[in-house]
Specification:
Layout (H helix, E strand, L loop, with lengths): L11 E4 L6 E2 L1 H14 L7 H8 L3 H9 L3 H19 L1 E2 L3 H10 L4 E8 H11 L7 E5 L10 H9 L8 E5 L2 H9 L3 E5 L15 E3 L10
Parallel strand pairs: 1-4, 1-6, 4-5, 6-7, 7-8
Antiparallel strand pairs: 2-3
Helix pairs in contact: 1-2, 1-4, 3-4
Amino acid sequence: MIKSIVKSPPKAILFDWDNTLVNNWDPIFISYNETLKKLGLKKKSKEETLENAKYSLRETFPNLFKDDWRKARKIFYETFKKIHLQKIKPLPKVEKILKIINEKKIPCGVISNKDSDLLRKEINKLGWKKYFNVLVGANEAKKDKPSKFPLLLALKKISLKPNKNIWYVGDNDIDVEFAKKNKCLSIFIENKIFKIKDLKQKPDLILKKIETLELYI
């Protein structure tokens, strides 16, 4: 139980974005394959695409596309920007949890490997800006998740330092690694895309559904 790990309420709760708070994988999958197609490369399965999408584009594209990575980046974003705001959907019960966190006056934020401008546009589209005290997207810090820099930047903005009373909630092994590296409490939300058995490190807490978070705050 989380109560045995943390003796006091969270000083802040920080979330991953895609597949933790929202479903926006289809635009990512479509945009990746459109990029591969225009560069004359073989399409990838959804599983392969989503495995790469855990990391930021600036981390993955130079390895995937070599000298063509800047061209690939342009194609990807041109495609993604046309469709992502139409297709984004909140995951069930997420807004309820955000409202509870807001009512309890717990600082709340998002740290994502999604481009920072696109992240903010999606948050504004859903009308969720009011729930977040801090947002950090890809390219804002020196490096992206799972490096320590995005969290240090986020906490600096809300005048906090890493500790076990900072909770980080995510849906994959990168998120668990990120929390552990920063000595924060790691909360993993079970999902159909990234499995518990694939986690390289054990989270402090595993929840079957995000709404269960209410029991611990």
